[in-house]
């Protein structure tokens, strides 16, 4: 396993408005993993691991954290967004589709940072996290996807995705 200094923590789609079919279910599941996501952030800070947010751009096509944050902020997700919001020095990238690698600058950033191991956290575990993990595996990154730091609308779907990541993509899914 790569040393912590060769790692990056990637939060996937955590700046989210949850205004879609089954969004309330996903929001509820995301609140359940918030303590683990915060523990990952503390772990990253303690080990000087870069934190990268890769996020939907909500049709703006701008990697403008403030604009996306304000677009997403609502009564239901306010506590979540306030807690998980990027800190000064964190990276914020946008993506047009499910994988964090697809048509984004993620791979270039990881190369510049010398990253060999990705720590993935976020939503939805059975879609964007899984597809990002798949693309990372194809690029030969080591993966840690803590089982208690990803969420999907349906916990069974999330568990299935974690099983796929562990068995097929060789991800470590041990909890934080």
Automatic annotation (TrEMBL):
Pfam families: Isochorismatase (PF00857). Residues 7-167 form the Isochorismatase-like domain. Keywords: Hydrolase. This is Nicotinamidase-related amidase. Transmembrane segments: none annotated. Signal peptide: none annotated. Belongs to the isochorismatase family. One of its GO terms (molecular function) is hydrolase activity. InterPro entries: Isochorismatase-like_dom, Isochorismatase-like_hydrls, Isochorismatase-like_sf. Gene3D superfamilies: Isochorismatase-like. It comes from Thalassobacillus cyri. CDD domains: cysteine_hydrolases. PANTHER family: ISOCHORISMATASE-LIKE DOMAIN-CONTAINING PROTEIN (PTHR43540:SF6), PEROXYUREIDOACRYLATE/UREIDOACRYLATE AMIDOHYDROLASE-RELATED (PTHR43540).
